[in-house]
Amino acid sequence: MRALGIETSCDETAVAIVRRDANGHAVIEAETVLSQIDDHAPFGGVVPEIAARAHVDHLDHLITATLNEAKLSPQDLDCIAATAGPGLIGGVLVGLVTGRAMASAIGVPFIPVNHLEGHALSPRLSEHVPFPYLLFLVSGGHTQILCVEGVGQYERWGTTLDDALGEAFDKTAKLLELGFPGGPAVERMAESGDADRFQLPLPLKGKQGCDFSFAGLKTALRLTAEKHAPLSDQTVADLCASFQRSVGETIKDRMASALTRFSDRYTSPPVLVAAGGVAANKAIRAVLDDLISARQGRLVIPPAHHCTDNAAMIAWAALEREAAHLPRFEPSARPRWPLDAQATPKLGSGK
Ligand code: ATP
Ligand code: MG
Ligand code: FE
After folding, report:
1. Which ligand is nearest to the CA of 311?
2. pLDDT tens readout for residues 217-245
3. Which atom from ligand 1 is nearest to the alpha carbon of 166?
4. Which of 44, 50, 78, 210 is deepest in the core (most CB within 10 A)?
5. Mutational test site, ligand 1, from 169, 186, 337, max ligand atoms within 8 Å of CB
6. Closest ligand 1 atom, CA of 11?
7. In the chain, where does DSSP find H-type helix?
8. What is the DSSP letter of 313?
């Protein structure tokens, strides 16, 4: 079965064509992605209306380009999949309506996909990672620890109580005038900084469960920066390094608790998958690597272009669901759509 996937929930317009072969493995036949980073950079963050308009401007060209790259025509597609949420509603609507119209014109099924399910199954695009595994999803909009037990079977063990980690990186960069997106800029500055100079808080450390909170850390960073103004380059670097150290220690603490819960439930060595733009951060990868090696487990980090928002994961989630004979969702756009709420029968309300 072959799916064309569309992703427009945030600031990437993406299209991909993926096939599921006879062994149940993914074959990516073509994928294109257009990042809007330059459109949003002057504003220091993603502007929803600019994002939605950019999706309108580019999506149809990308669909044609992706079909051309795969040397396929619309009639070769077995279904069309698009992100139906969660995300910025204007963008989600663009992808959803385009996908539905295309499916109806070709006469194939339209398959609405939960963007988070796309991320959850994304490691299986490049290698056949068996279930169960733990997913650490860290992006600009999400910070979650999910237990992925199978296709359509997800338990959310932890989430952020306030800011997402990518958002905290972006806000830190904005405060320190390092530009957008903030994560890579903060990581670069941190390399020449002294991580021990500032003792920033370690939110929720030692608390039960696997939740996160970054609002206190962000405030502490702002107050420290204000106290040292005007900031020298070295102080900016030290602030970045200290921020990154606090983040690393927080992740270590929260993830240790998730890994213990995983080992209490399953006898197999833990498999931890990290996805989302923040998973590109080398200091964070090192923390995850240490945690998982100490438990004789395996750390899987999909290639960078599948860690961030992409359409191959949307097409693939649709194919995995169809192969597992799971029911299709109502094709309504949802700004919020927790992954573990998928099992509830009333999916069509859009609320
Ligand atoms: P969503 O949350 O809907 O998945 P998003 O567009 O916010 O969407 P991604 O594209 O996966 O998420 O990731 C972008 C985020 O990742 C930004 O917040 C960016 O600052 C952060 N990021 C990227 N590279 C790094 C890095 N090296 N270190 C830390 N954060 C990073
Ligand atoms: Mg993005
Ligand atoms: Fe995403």
Report:
1. 3
2. 999 999 999 999 999 999 999 999 999 99
3. 18
4. 210
5. 169
6. 6
7. 37-40, 48-70, 89-106, 115-121, 123-126, 165-175, 182-190, 215-227, 233-265, 282-293, 304-307, 312-323
8. H
* Of 158, 141, 24, 98, residue with least CA distance to 333: 98
CA pair distance 1, 202, nearest whole angstrom = 47
Distance (Å, whole) CA 63 – CA 68: 9
Q: How far apart are CA 3 and CA 20, in angstroms?
A: 9
- Mapped onto helix, strand or coil, the DSSP state of residue 174 is helix
**Among the listed residues 145, 130, 120, the one whose alpha carbon sits nearest the alpha carbon of residue 257:** 145
In the three-class reduction of DSSP (H, G, I as helix; E, B as strand; rest coil), residue 129 is classed as coil
Q: Which of 217, 250, 305, 309 to mutate to test the pocket of ligand 1 (most atoms within 8 A of CB)?
A: 309
- What single letter denotes the amino acid at residue 349? S
Report the half-sphere exposure of 125 (CA within 13 A, side-chain side): 32
Measured between alpha carbons, how far is 112 from 120 in angstroms, rounded to an integer? Answer: 16
Tell whether the model's pLDDT for residue 327 goes beyond 60. Answer: yes
Query: How far, in Å, is the centroid of ligand 2 from the Cα of 11?
Result: 5
CB of 284 sitting under 6 A from ligand 1: no
CA distance 170 to 75: 42
Compute the distance between CA of residue 12 and CA of residue 91 in angstroms, rounded to an integer. 10
